[in-house]
Automatic annotation (TrEMBL):
Molecular function GO labels: acetyl-CoA carboxylase activity; ATP binding
One Gene Ontology term from the biological process aspect of the record: fatty acid biosynthetic process
Domain Acetyl-CoA carboxylase central per the UniProt entry, residue ranges: 3-116
UniProt signal peptide: none
GO CC term, one of those recorded: mitochondrion
Organism from which the protein derives: Photinus pyralis
InterPro entries: ACCA, AcCoA_COase_cen
Protein's recorded name: Acetyl-CoA carboxylase central domain-containing protein
Length: 116
């Protein structure tokens, strides 16, 4: 049983890669883009509700007293909102429905795009 556990632990990274590509590279690509958009929305929605960034940062700090690294990551991410927005727009431009060889992306990107 111990050998089986060791083998399972050793093969876990390979298993994760195989699982990520199980439906093909195009689906993996679209899932990755979906996760980028969702991460963008998750950070930026925190800063939409209040005009003062300081108050958002203080609230984040109070909510994450045990995980200040998360606060720092969130604030650093938000500080690059312009670059992130440009990246999202560039990605979306590459996946316009009327572009050749794009395929049916709505299955993967419809929900994250609604959040934008």
């Amino acid at each position: 049983a111990n050998d089986a556990e060791t083998l399972k632990t050793t093969l876990a990274p390979l298993s994760e890669v195989l699982h990520a590509y199980a439906e093909g590279s195009k689906v993996h690509e679209l899932n990755f883009i979906q996760s980028l958009i969702e991460a963008y929305v998750d950070v930026e929605k925190l800063f939409l509700s209040q005009a003062q960034e300081d108050s958002v940062i203080l609230r984040l700090r109070d909510q994450n007293k045990d995980n200040l690294a998360k606060v720092v990551q969130t604030v650093l991410s938000h500080s690059r909102v312009s670059a992130k927005s440009s990246l999202i727009l560039a990605i979306l431009d590459e996946y316009r429905p009327n572009k050749p060889n794009v395929g049916n992306i709505s299955k993967y990107l419809r929900e994250p795009l609604r959040k934008l």
